[in-house]
Design brief:
globular, Thiamine biosynthesis protein
């Protein structure tokens, strides 16, 4: 014969198990799909990490492309480049280097023409070290153009930046993994800086010199 208390105990057991199952289902985090097909959770995580919202987003168009001063200089006309350098100075041209494309190319061409071009040496050195093969050549040409400007009697505008540029060109010049023409540009820039007592000539590699 069944115990009179068995049925109530079984009823409470069934109710307890059902309650646990309901709680476990309710505790699972729900993921809401966004209209674009991704989840809101993943979108929020991307935003928090600083990642772009979409890898297919079009590149930002530089507002400088609509500036008549930049438009004249983009023709590589010496007068246009000189006018841009006079108007913006080294700081304005360095700021434009991040725009990419024609603006970056034009800024690099104009930098050696700026009266205060020495202020750009540090930025150009850092850019040359971090550049891709495609970007490194034009950057080194601009750095060489600035470094090769005649010395003046005035105090250096940015001694720390000049020292950074000197270290950068020596690093590139001695890196045998880099293209030979880039290393040659770095050697030329190092020699130009050596004339201004910014590089020890003994540290400049000579294997790129013509026989």
């Amino acid at each position: 014969m069944l115990d009179s208390n068995a049925r109530p105990r079984r009823t409470w057991t069934v109710l307890f198990v059902a309650t646990l199952a309901a709680c476990s289902r309710g505790s699972a985090p729900s993921e809401v799909s966004s209209p674009s097909g991704g989840s809101s959770g993943s979108n929020e995580a991307a935003a928090a990490s600083g990642a772009p919202a979409s890898a297919n987003a079009p590149p930002r168009r530089s507002v400088r492309l609509d500036d008549p001063r930049w438009q004249r200089a983009m023709d590589e006309d010496p007068a246009g480049l000189g006018g841009l350098a006079d108007a913006l100075g080294a700081a304005g041209l360095v700021e434009a280097l991040g725009d990419g494309g024609a603006i970056t190319k034009t800024a690099l061409l104009a930098l050696p023409l700026a009266d205060d071009a020495d202020l750009a040496l540090g930025a150009l050195g850092k850019r040359a070290l971090a550049a891709t093969d495609e970007e490194r050549g034009p950057t080194l040409e601009a750095l060489l153009g600035v470094a090769g400007r005649p010395a003046t009697a005035r105090e250096p505008l940015d001694p720390e930046g000049a020292a950074e540029a000197a270290a950068a060109v020596l690093t590139i010049a001695t890196n045998t993994a880099l293209p030979r023409d880039h290393r040659a540009l770095a050697v030329s820039a190092a020699r130009a800086l050596a004339e201004k007592k910014l590089v020890d000539p003994a540290k400049i590699p000579s294997e790129l010199d013509p026989p």
